[in-house]
Structures are given as C-alpha cells and as structure tokens.
C-alpha cells in the first residue's frame, strides 16, 4: 500500500466513525433506536445519513411543527 492509499483509508474510517457517533447521539436524543442507527452509520457513508434524515429527522420536524 502506498502512503496515499493509507491516508485515504484513515480519512474514510474517521468519516464513517464520526457519522456513526453522530447518528447514535442524535437518535438517542430523539428516542429512536440509537444502537441500530449507530451500527448502520458504521457500515458506509453517506447513505445512512440520508436515510436518517428522511426516516427520523423530517418526520420529527413535521410532528413538532418546525418548518425548513
């Protein structure tokens, strides 16, 4: 492996880790299966964030009456 490939792998790992942590913390605040969202967030990026937005954040905003 070249040094460039290692840097790319480390960056990808950090992005996926940050995404998983964010999904876990936010899902815990919203009482929405935090462990499931955290684990799904560790699988790939950015699809879990997109799904989380459409299945959790958007319905939660509509329920609270917050416009975007």
From TrEMBL:
Keywords: Membrane, Transmembrane, Transmembrane helix. The lineage of its organism: Bacteria, Bacillati, Bacillota, Bacilli, Bacillales. The chain crosses the membrane at residues 6-25, 34-55. This is Sigma-Y antisigma factor component.
């Amino acid at each position: 492996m070249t040094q460039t490939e290692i840097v790319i792998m480390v960056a990808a790992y950090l992005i996926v880790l940050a995404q998983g942590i964010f999904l876990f913390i936010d899902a815990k605040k919203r009482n929405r299966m935090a462990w499931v969202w955290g684990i799904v967030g560790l699988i790939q990026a950015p699809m879990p964030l997109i799904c989380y937005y459409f299945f959790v954040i958007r319905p939660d905003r509509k329920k609270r009456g917050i416009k975007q």
